[in-house]
Amino acid sequence: MTDLAHEITELRRDVRTLADHAALTTLLDRFAAGLDSTAPDRNDETWYRSLFTEDVRLELPNGVHHGTAGLDGFLGAPKKAWARTHHLVTNPVVTVDGDRATGRANAHATHVPHPAEDGTTGPLFVGGAHYDYTAVRTADGWRVDALTASVVWVEGAPGA
């Protein structure tokens, strides 16, 4: 192989690695954005299928769910408990092995309570967690097939 051909091969590999890492990181960013959104197009089957495999397994603080069917209810129920939420995902570490990937990222979630009858708002409920996930490359791009949120710390109490 010539030096130029070798360099092109290495560049192609590097570009694919960067593209995979960007796509996998974007999946978690989109997941978090969906958790905070009340927009119908970020809470429907089409949205979830753009993030997850059909047989996804989610282990979140509100419970465990299998598959994309029923995700609107599973992920929508906690939204009703709060006036707003704000999830930040940081420090992603991704490992790609062919068409499979594993990753971990930190999450910081702020939950704003609904106002009381007098218009006052109680204290925020805030927490930090790790998102550990696996993903597979599909014909439509990367999709998460398992995600576990492990709570590391909390401040405040739900409904306090």
From TrEMBL:
Name used for this protein in its record: SnoaL-like domain-containing protein
Domain SnoaL-like: start-end pairs: 16-147
Protein species of origin: Streptomyces albireticuli
InterPro entries associated with the record: NTF2-like_dom_sf, SnoaL-like
Pfam families reported in the protein's UniProt record: SnoaL_4 (PF13577)
